[in-house]
Amino acid sequence: MARITMREAISQALWEEMERDERVFIMGEEVGVWGGTYAVTKGFYDHFGEKRVRDTPISEAVIVGSAIGAALTGLRPVAELMTINFAFVAMDHIVNEAAKLHYMFGGQFRLPLVIRAPGGGGRQLAATHSQTPDVIFAHFPGLKVVSPGTPADAKGMLKSAIRSDDPILFIENATLYQLRGEVPDGEYTTPLGKSRVHRPGRDVTIVTYSKMVDLSTKAAEQLSKDGIEAEIIDLRSLRPLDMEPVIESFKKTNRAVLVEEGWLSYGVGAEVAARIYEQALDYVDAPIKRVAQKEVPLPYNRNLEQMALPQVEDIVKAVKEVL
Amino acid sequence: MAKVVSMPKLGFDMAEGTLVRWVISEDEPVEKGAVLAEIETDKATIEVESSFSGVVRRHMIEEGTTIPVGEAIAIIGEKEEQIDFESLVGSEKAGEEEKVDLGKGEAVKEATPEQAGPEKPEVVGVEAVAEAGQLPEGVRASPLAHRMAEERGINLLKVSGSGPRGRIIKADIEAYQEAKPAVVEGLPMGMPVMVSEPQLDRQIPLSRLRATIGRRMTASTQNVPHIFVTHVYDMAAVMELRKQINAMLPEGEKTSVNDYIVKAVALALREHPSLNASLDEKEGEILQHGQINVGVAVATDNGLLTVVSHDCDRKPLRLISAELKLMAGRVRQGKVRPEDIEGSTFTVSNLGMFGVEHFTAIINPPEAAILAVGAVREVAVVVEGEIKPGLRMSTTLSVDHRVSDGADGAQFLQTLAKYLEEPLRLMI
């Protein structure tokens, strides 16, 4: 097992899949000569050449639209958006075309498309460049929306995404690129659409994904000092949403805290809570609590930004409130 | 034209009322003066008469609802009349608001914290009760606790909850054991075991009457310095007189011992106006009442109410007796009228019928005194060196020391002796 960053893990996944299948290619702003805004594709241009590592105009509509076209004709594009905040200008391509073409043409086409997009706040990029709009995309049937919380998952899930014949939005939390973690040696893939137990526990179930897996783990370590053992479920995929490990855990703990970086209203926590109440009402021993971003456009000011984002202390507090 | 019936003000200090029962349903005809609904105030349940004739077109509130005085409770109109209920009630309300505005100066003055304060717990209480009624099986328990209780055959009403707001949670069900009789440990083997079913704790929401009694009596004990003066009376003459009088009266009109005491008290108060008085702290004066209105405490299942015989010193005994009987009956049926329970200047509380020998009573503000009356008992008395059977009754007067003194009380009790021990004085 090697201990590498999530940036390296994603880079490895792309490299391995491009080596494995020559239909796989990368396109996006600055992914080629520059090596990627977050240096994920550094060295790719020299190794794979300009045909498979394509720099694009600054137009997300072009990036996603032409990637869709390429996918329809049998290639396996990995389109990179510089941030998920720019996905809004490609919204029609993402939700009306990528998510629906297979369906609209009666299954005649598959769409083996991966859209990679970094998201999340906490880097003082101000309100328009710091959003976590994951649920917006997860709302549309036809699109798979996944977001890893560890380097190992990032690598395995991206490899699965590239091999999948479905359109997939692969959301990377930009603050996680530096996160280090154990990654299995050699070739492996991680199934998409499967939640997993990230940390076993007995007293409360924390359901979360992406960056909040890391914060929840830190919260669980603090809670452990008080004798509280939190079980953390990493959803990994928002659509499809795999509730099985969540329900199984909840039946054991009877209490849940749902943590996400995005805003509270209509969020992942709201969906998970509703499903717990639907599927495990008889196991509810306390009202379920949600931890999420304060409902404001994220401030630029560092202190205010941190206040608006969920913190480890917020998770600890919420857990204590449901116990 | 359609008319609005509002929550009536049934007493000077009534701020809100609870509609207990609709007597006339929607779409039923009603005559002016007929009983429309029953309303519970702080003091009693009172019948509300319709001020209009017509058809009850709509109940504006449901049974059990508490609303402020003056708000709409029903709309009475013609059978087929088109009524815009919203605007009708709205216009009434607007009128109300205007009235409030006109009286602003006074309203502000009245809203002192002491007056506003005690009302709050009552409102919370009402809400809490309503909420408890809506909870599944009437208890606050988590869904998991509900299921576990069902599986284990545990009555959730017996389990106390340790969760937020007393919610019964999993841990409470797990910790719950059927209540076994508490027996001291270390007893020898073979002791008989208690077999009767355990009695359950019951949570009974405070009725408005209970809450009012509690509030007033707490205020009295805290604010009124009580002095207690006890006097024992020879009741032989009253008992003999009563026997003779009752022999002449038809069934249902017979007099009670208490009637004689009430009349005697009223006459004695004439001679001791200092005890037929109220302290007005604001003005720094004592108000000696011209009227002598003797209140008589009546026990009901829900609490204590005082019915009032007005101008009692000027009424013949038989009239006092009949009045008290009628009003006490109304109290016990929950049909008391506001005038039955208002305006007392002195109270008599008699527990003699329960065999009580002696007790002390708490003054009912703003009155200055209250007389606690025990039972007439046959006792051995010493008369001129010889032990003889006698009839004695002990009374204890509680006096507000801010208004009067122990000596006044003692003299009043002496005067009372004049009337009780020579009861013909009650008749002349």
* Poorly predicted runs of 5 or more residues of chain B: 92-132
Radius of gyration of chain B: 27 Å
The CATH topology of the largest domain in chain A is Rossmann fold
Main structural class of chain B: alpha+beta
Strand content of chain B: 15-25%
What is the ordering of alpha helices and beta strands of chain B?
EEEEEEEEHHHHHHHEHHEEEEHEEEH
Strand content of chain A: 15-25%
Order of helices and strands of chain A: EHEHEHEHHEHEHEEEEHEEHEHEHH
SSE blueprint and pairings:
The complex is a heterodimer of chains A (323) and B (428).
Chain A: E1 2-5, H1 6-20, E2 24-28, H2 44-48, E3 53-55, H3 60-72, E4 76-80, H4 91-98, H5 101-104, E5 114-119, H6 134-138, E6 144-146, H7 151-163, E7 168-173, E8 180-183, E9 196-199, E10 204-208, H8 211-225, E11 230-234, E12 237-239, H9 244-253, E13 256-263, H10 268-280, E14 289-293, H11 302-308, H12 312-322
Parallel strand pairs in A: 2-3, 2-4, 4-5, 5-7, 6-7, 10-11, 10-13, 13-14
Antiparallel strand pairs in A: 1-8, 6-12, 9-11
Helix pairs in contact in A: 1-7, 3-4, 8-12
Chain B: E1 3-6, E2 16-22, E3 29-30, E4 35-40, E5 45-49, E6 54-59, E7 66-68, E8 72-77, H1 85-102, H2 104-110, H3 113-116, H4 119-134, H5 143-152, H6 170-175, H7 208-223, E9 226-234, H8 236-248, H9 257-271, E10 277-280, E11 285-288, E12 294-300, E13 303-309, H10 317-332, E14 346-350, E15 369-383, E16 386-400, H11 406-421
Helix pairs in contact in B: 9-10, 9-11
